[in-house]
Amino acid sequence: MRKKQSTNFENEQFLFQVCELNSAIAMISGRWKSQIVYSISQGNNRFHLLQKELPNISETVLARQLKELETHAILVKQEIPDTVPVGIKYVLTNKGLDLVPILESLCDWGKLYEGGKEISACYTS
């Protein structure tokens, strides 16, 4: 979080006003966010399932990234009924579901212009 009087904050606000793309990129920026969104779209909707799918992410970072995605209304937490202790699953909102094909297109674009490297963790169409 930037100080509201900082030059960085002012520059960020200016860029958000100039083009909505800057705002969109800010919502999904972060090393793990795109992988988290895609993984949830594939059914890995519990914290432990995300950890299993993304073994290199720390618990702290995963929790922070999930919270940021929730703050941007890309996903919501839902309680799983009849579980003890109370289970939580992550569900993509319509905003999050709309993001999935965009991420897939960006992945395809990256494959095309990064020398066609196949990255196993990348989305497949």
UniProtKB/TrEMBL annotation:
**What Pfam families is this protein classified in?**
HxlR (PF01638)
Q: InterPro entries in the record, alphabetically?
A: HTH_HxlR, WH-like_DNA-bd_sf, WH_DNA-bd_sf
What GO MF annotations does this protein's record show?
A: DNA binding
Q: Which domain of life is it from?
A: Bacteria
- Give the SUPFAM superfamilies listed for this entry: Winged helix' DNA-binding domain
Keyword line: DNA-binding, Transcription, Transcription regulation
Q: What is this protein called?
A: HTH hxlR-type domain-containing protein
Where does this protein come from, organism-wise?
Zunongwangia profunda (strain DSM 18752 / CCTCC AB 206139 / SM-A87) (Wangia profunda)
